[in-house]
């Protein structure tokens, strides 16, 4: 399976659909321990990203081959300009850092790990968060750790993405009993326990979409813009 710019675009379009489908869930999770706008913000942001991808597809192709980084940079700039709250800056920085390490037509397993590591670094630095504070970092870090292990074991690109996606999903669920010590949820103190972190759950959706995009073929016709 080749992970190229077309894969990156499928990843983004599948993320948009996954976020739209989970918008109410993300909103409810955020209502319990945050501002209650995570689902709406993420949905609005990725709808804007898909619109920009559609606009770009309608333009004449340039002479240079499109890279994975080109797609991720478009995601970053769009999210930063359209998403309010913490989601836009955090995810925007994650995609921007990932774009900087993926400026090539195709990426191999070590490069997939580098993309995920860069995204984690972006989230951590922008949010000034570390593991154990009940934030999206608690899903990103296990995803990166699992991806690194899969790559060391000689796994393919799909193996690396599968490891990351599965780890993020489990880690998001594991935030439920945690007490938040960072972000708005930290204002609740002990009352933040018993609720899943919305950013960790959206991280699992994003990484699940990356895996699904790698397992799928060329873009198919989806009325919501999914591949």
Automatic annotation (TrEMBL):
It is an enzyme of class 2 (transferase). Keywords: Kinase, Transferase. Residues 6-212 form the DhaL domain. The keyword Transferase applies. Its EC number is 2.7.1.121. Gene3D superfamilies: 1.25.40.340. One of its GO terms (molecular function) is phosphoenolpyruvate-glycerone phosphotransferase activity. The keyword Transferase applies. SUPFAM superfamilies: DhaL-like. PANTHER family: TRIOKINASE/FMN CYCLASE, TRIOKINASE_FMN CYCLASE. This is Dihydroxyacetone kinase subunit DhaL. It comes from Promicromonospora kroppenstedtii.
């Amino acid at each position: 399976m080749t992970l190229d710019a077309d894969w990156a675009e499928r990843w983004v379009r599948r993320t948009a659909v996954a976020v739209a489908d989970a918008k109410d869930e993300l909103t409810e999770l955020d209502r319990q321990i945050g501002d209650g706008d995570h689902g709406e913000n993420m949905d609005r942001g990725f709808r804007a990203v898909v619109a920009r991808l559609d606009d770009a597809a309608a333009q004449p192709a340039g002479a240079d081959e499109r890279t994975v980084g080109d797609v991720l940079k478009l995601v970053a700039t769009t999210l930063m300009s359209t998403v309010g709250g913490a989601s836009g800056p955090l995810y925007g920085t994650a995609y921007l850092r990932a774009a900087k390490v993926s400026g090539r037509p195709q990426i191999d397993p070590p490069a997939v790990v580098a993309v995920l590591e860069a995204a984690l670094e972006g989230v951590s630095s922008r949010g000034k968060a570390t593991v154990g504070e009940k934030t999206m970092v608690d899903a990103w870090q296990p995803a990166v750790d699992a991806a690194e292990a899969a790559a060391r074991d000689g796994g393919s690109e799909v193996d690396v993405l599968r490891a990351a996606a599965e780890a993020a999903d489990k880690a998001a669920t594991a935030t439920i009993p945690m007490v938040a010590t960072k972000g708005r949820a930290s204002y609740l103190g002990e009352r933040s326990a018993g609720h899943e972190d919305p950013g960790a759950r959206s991280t699992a959706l994003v990484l699940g979409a990356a895996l699904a995009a790698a397992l799928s073929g060329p873009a198919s016709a989806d009325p919501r813009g999914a591949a």
